[in-house]
Amino acid sequence: MLAASPVLGQSVQEDVPADDAAIEALAELEAQEADTGSSGDLPSLPALFARALENDADLARQRLELEAIEQEEPLARSRLLPQLTASGGYLWQDSTNVRTEVDPDSQIPPDQQDVRPGEIEEQYWQVQLQQPLFSLERWRGMGRADAQVSAAELDLALVERDLALKVSEAYVNAYLASRTLGLLEAQQESLELQVRQAKRAYELGVGDRINLLEAQSRFDQSIADTVEAENELDDALSELERLTGMRPAFEGHQLGNLNAVDIEGDLGSPQAWLDRIVQNLDVQRADAEREINDSDTSVRRSGYFPEVNLNLSYSDRVSDDELRESEDYRANVEVSMPLFRGGRTMASVRQGELRTAASQKALDNQRNLAAQEVRQRLRALDGNARRLEALGQAIESSELFLEAAERGEQLGLRDLVDVLDARASLYDQRIQFVDTLGNFVLDRLALESAVGDLGREDLARTMDLLTRITLSGSGNAER
């Protein structure tokens, strides 16, 4: 976040005696640095993720969506099971025709003519059972439903994975911002003393205005960086509150010994990581989509095959017209074979084949993206590991330089400006170390996600790493 600044005290030609206020402020800074205690444990990252699993609305929506799609299986199965229906009705009819009127020209006496009633009432009911005996389309529909459920389960896993990454990123950002804020606040105190001493040197005539302006510039830059760190901390805490329903506290913790960081530099062969991209959830989801389209195409092809159904029914009709009364038992086997539908079946099959081919290309694309993600994260992790090692050595050198400057100031070989400048440079390097460590942690989580192996143990490992540099230390805290 902050580049290492040039040594301000090198341009001072003569030692400037420090005033009593500066000496007291420096002693207070040293006393604060010697205090490495912590007011409590860091908020638990796995616990925050567990709360997010219960609080996140998008995850709750996806769970309900999965339950809805799971109903596709019983829906598809129901088309293979018997279908039992019952129907009934009431009929009133008033008809006038040759059979409802007496024929005056007939030789048969009117009372012996077969005259039907013109106005009738009747009730009827029927029970019908249909059992599919052969239906390739309905049978293959079961496979399509299974593929849809599998894809929905992967959708839920994807939402959970993205939620874990969001919570982890917000947690790490909040931790980094809080630690950076503490370092910057301590650095401001050191730079304020440096400005005061540069101003004193200028007033005594042994310093120049350039040194004073440079010290003031670094102090103003530190204030600006502090404001930015405060905004980043508020943003990260707000994101955690949105995801988990609570606002964790990162205040009251101090940065300990950075040498406690145990970085795994050798991640193994890149090819070994690339071989694991088949477990990537985005790749699996693309493969599930291809399976859905392939199953759907099989269902469409079933339109070329006949269907055989067994129909059983019983009906009873009661009517004022005796000839309409009946009680029927029916059993029949029905075979239907589509012969021509205007090219509908052929176009439907062709559409399904094209969608299957498109989903195959989408699967290839997801594999390429996952491979690229693995390569990028491996390069970033390697660079961050080497940068952390270099920054660790630089911090050790800066600490030795600070000790030497303090000893020189006590012996009259260095002035207070040199001590304050060495202290400010040490803060810069610690800030860069913390920022690089955050990038390393997030890259490692993203790498595990790219190979489909992101789990709670990764969150626990991240928490353990941050806890070690927060709680352990022997005098290298920022406050």
Structure description:
This protein is α+β, with helices and mostly antiparallel strands and 479 residues long. It has two domains: 8-69 and 142-293 and 354-471, Outer membrane efflux proteins (OEP); 82-136 and 305-342, Outer membrane efflux proteins (OEP). The protein has eleven helices and four strands. It has helices at residues 20-34, 45-55, 57-70, 72-78, 136-204, 209-244, 270-274, 281-301, 344-411, 416-450, 456-471; strands at 83-94, 119-134, 307-319, 326-336. Strands 1-2-3-4 form a four-stranded antiparallel β-sheet, with no helix packed on it. β3 (307-319) and β4 form a beta hairpin. It starts with 19 loop residues before the first helix and ends in an 8-residue tail after the last helix. Residues 1-23, 29-39 and 472-479 have low confidence and may be disordered.
N- and C-termini, Cα separation? 19 Å
Strand content: 5-15%
User: Total number of β-strand segments?
Assistant: 4
CATH-defined topology of the largest domain:
Outer membrane efflux proteins (OEP)
CATH class of the largest domain: Mainly Alpha
The ordered H/E elements are: HHHHEEHHHHEEHHH
Number of helices: 11
Mean pLDDT: 83
